[in-house]
Amino acid sequence: MGLSGSYYNSIKAMQVRLARVSGFCGDGGKFGVSGAIRLAQEAALSNPGQVYIVGDLVHNTHVTDWLTDSYGIKFVKKLDQVPDGSTLVIKAHGAPPDFCTTCEAKNLHVVDATCPMVKAAQNLVRQFVSAGKKVIYVASDKKHDEAISVSQQVDHGVKVVTLDELSALEIKNPLETVVLTQTTLSMLETQKAFAALQKKYPELAIRPHLCQATTERQRAVLELADEVDLLVVVGAPHSSNSRRLLEVATSTGKPAYAVDEAEDLDPAWFGAQIDSVGVIAGASTPEWITQAVVAKIKTINNE
Ligand code: SF4
Questions:
Q1: Is this model's pTM higher than 0.90 or not?
Q2: What is the pLDDT of residues 239-250, one digit of tens each?
């Protein structure tokens, strides 16, 4: 469902190039963001007006608004706002066990849209802790939905840290400790931090768990940066994978900006020295938003 392929379009002096991998992850609805959306759509069509989601299905408000307006799905902040007996879609970032227990108690019909990559991390946490290991879970933000759903699979034995905190971390028993990551961290920053950690603790087991959708999009930004003067990342401010794309884009030294939608573009970014613009969308950004951004960039006259 994501935009893919690369092309040039010339409007005045400006060229716009789309990254070779961009937009929704999940291979057209099989898993990930596009899979979660497909499951929510199907649930809404089978149970009109009865489908609820606690929080965001995926981290993009345009998707939330569209599912509300076009499919009648109700987004609520807390599980106790979901009426007993209705249908609940678990978001792509998954849910902790106590959430699922409450769903059972409320007799909800649960549609689980957890991404398989997140489910795999949940399983790993349970396996490591039941084997007597301590888990250090590296998250983009300790309150991120995925960090909560994965780290709370067990009631003890998991310490959540950010990538920035890793270098100062003292690990008392490295032989009995495993390091695991959120799926959407920065590939380059994670490699750097883990190389330093492994040097400090050679016996430590380090299990990076970045998903392919994340690493592919980050590689695509690096490639795109070689070919354009400026980079635009299309994604919601609360989308971890989109924020990492901006970090990777910025690390290339090219001017880079993030926008949630076309209206956020500032013509002042596109000075006379900018002839080509590279655009990439985060894994939760819908195609129509990306297309609107591309179309608007093409209208900017930078002469
Ligand atoms: S970004 Fe990765 S982990 Fe997140 S939904 Fe997509 S495939 Fe799954």
A1: yes
A2: 999 999 999 999
